[in-house]
Amino acid sequence: MPELPEVETVVRSLVPHITGLKVSGAELRFDKTLRRPVAYSFADLAGRRVLGIRRRGKMIVIALEGGPALVFHLKMTGQLMVVPPAEPRDKHVHFILSFASGDCELRFRDVRKFGFVRCLEAGCVAEAPEMAGLGPEPLEIGRREFAALFAGRRGRMKSLLLDQRRIAGIGNIYADEILFAAGVHPRKNADRRKTDEFYRVWTEMHRILNRAIDAKGTSISDYRDADGNEGGFQIKLKVYGRTGEPCPRCKTPIRRLVVGGRGTHICPKCQRERKALAKLGTR
The domain 4-132 belongs to what CATH superfamily? Predict the structure, then answer.
């Protein structure tokens, strides 16, 4: 699933293409792609200009002139691409936003069909069910506030990082990379951590997410930006997807385990898990 760096990259690649363009129409090609209820019909979108595009967590919000906003979630395989109208549409294109300029259109393509679009009143986006429960943005929260989110909380560090209600935008790839860089085992309970450990996680979270944005995200399978380009951060991953390969620090083979039902990659030497904690039921 595209995470914060990938979604941010899509937003940044959309901005120069469609900001200011006037919508001429919208077409839904797979009914379940649209989440209901809707605040505006697609016919209501025609004639409105694109005012702005932003990210919230793993979602993309496109604000239109006069009130409407389109909210997209890419889920597992979703792609938002700007292409010439003459380019053939394959069976995986489920939603199309066309523009009066006639030289491009925005297509939502999703092979597995888990992604969605919602049409809302812009002023009510924050109250939508998908948005209302989201935690703070990882790159906006201060380190003390971050530590306060986790300190004393029951739960494993990785599971808490993945909890979108606690902090929005981090998924499996970057949780593994952040915890490795911070030297924290993903199974360790947050209520047993010291403040300096949370500070390390916060520091590495900022560093890694910013580096991934600079590299335009991680392309492992379906992820592409709005121009159809792959990201470049996959060649910089230290542990994710590198089971059996040597740790870049100590050369110990990377190990794959399961935490909270999610495949997880660690260096068993750099991210030690005390046996005493295993006896307390943290495994």
Answer: MutM-like, N-terminal (3.20.190.10)
